[in-house]
Design goal:
heterodimer, A: about 100 residues, alpha+beta, Ubiquitin-like (UB roll), 3 helices, 3 strands, about 20% helix, B: about 250 residues, mainly alpha, 11 helices
Chain lengths: ~100, ~250
């Protein structure tokens, strides 16, 4: 993510924003923004992404600190699991007593 | 003399209305989009507070005027906001300095008003306080970042402080109406908020490496309505234009 072009060097770093919603247990990625430091990123995220009462908790991560899988590795990374339907737990009869899973 | 309670409510509502309008002038012009949105949020918070203060003012006055009537159909001499909030935005740092000075006063005032003997005022203050606690945290952080930033940002913030400090004093001006409201437990004396304001200003401006001007002079004339600055009339021509040109227009 760290772009070395001359214009980018004068800008604040990019932060990825994760928000835990009113009804969700986990934080979800909602977008990104620029900020000088993590405290400012939290404040900016509060103003940009929780204006309509979307969240109860915010995480911010500097985008350059994220290690991402490469799109060109798509084949070896994901295709092998396509043919392995037995990994989905759809072959079991769930007893009625268990209820919704 | 007018009813001190009505006067008090106008002062609250006019401060938040005029400052809200000033900040909204940044919409689409802030240095970065994140600040643009944050400023618009603050402007909307203050506008919401205006609606409550002026709504109650109209109720107390009992002449059938709504918050919209009070906001859009009064002329400059009827406004009771402090001169500080009608001053032009200047550069971003100047706007944030004005914001910090107002926020630092506003948060102390609301902290007292939540205990008002008038339940309506206490309720408005409780709702507003949550918003304003965030406003002051945000403006203080920005003041520190810019004051204790580069040589240029420091110089600009010092100039912004020198330029606006003498307008903060008016916020603590206390008149006979304030004494009356204080006796009945409706509102604190503005002068009683000064020491806590000074303590916060000293801490934040100190952390921002900025020097508070050594003067006790304070501009005056806004909260009494006797003499606003020349900027208020210009602001009103923009803010009130639509209702003046198309009376009663709604959407």
């Amino acid at each position: 993510m760290s772009d070395e072009s001359p214009t980018a060097r004068n800008e604040w770093p990019l932060w990825e924003i994760f928000i835990r919603g009113q009804h969700g247990m986990s934080h979800r990625h909602v977008g990104s923004l620029h900020a000088a430091d993590s405290e400012m990123a939290i404040k900016n995220a509060r103003d940009v992404y929780t204006r309509r009462n979307e969240g109860v908790s915010i995480w911010v991560v500097e985008a350059s600190k994220i290690t991402a899988s490469s799109p060109s590795d798509k084949g070896p990374m994901y295709e092998p699991s396509q043919s392995k339907v037995y990994r989905h737990p759809t072959f079991f009869d769930i007893p009625d007593d268990v209820g919704a899973m | 003399m007018r009813d001190p309670l009505f006067e008090f409510l106008l002062r609250q509502g006019d401060n938040t209305l005029i400052l809200s309008h000033r900040i909204s002038e940044w919409c689409g012009h802030a240095p970065v989009v994140e600040e643009d949105i944050a400023l618009a949020n603050i402007a909307l918070d203050l506008l919401g507070q205006t609606q409550m203060w002026l709504g109650l003012a109209g109720e107390v006055e009992g002449m059938g005027r709504s918050s919209d009537d009070l906001a859009m159909l009064r002329d400059a001499w009827d406004f009771r906001n402090a001169i500080l909030v009608e001053r032009p935005n200047g550069h971003f740092g100047q706007t944030m300095m004005r914001q910090f000075l107002f926020d630092a006063y506003h948060v102390e005032l609301l902290s007292e008003l939540v205990n008002s003997s008038d339940a309506r005022i206490a309720a408005i203050a409780a709702k507003s306080l949550k918003e304003v606690e965030y406003h002051v945290e945000r403006s203080a952080t920005t003041i520190i970042a810019l004051g204790d930033g580069t040589q240029e940002s420091h110089a600009r913030m010092q100039a912004a402080l020198d330029n606006q400090w003498t307008f903060a004093g008016e916020l603590f001006e206390t008149d006979a109406g304030d004494e009356t409201l204080n006796e009945t437990g409706i509102a604190p004396l503005p002068s009683s908020l000064r020491s806590r304001f000074d303590a916060r200003a000293k801490a934040i401006l100190g952390a921002a490496t900025l020097a508070i001007p050594e003067t006790s002079f304070a501009h005056s004339g806004g909260r009494s309505g006797k003499q606003h600055s020349e900027h208020l009339g210009h602001l009103l021509t923009q803010m009130q234009w639509l209702q003046r040109a198309y009376p009663g227009a709604t959407w």
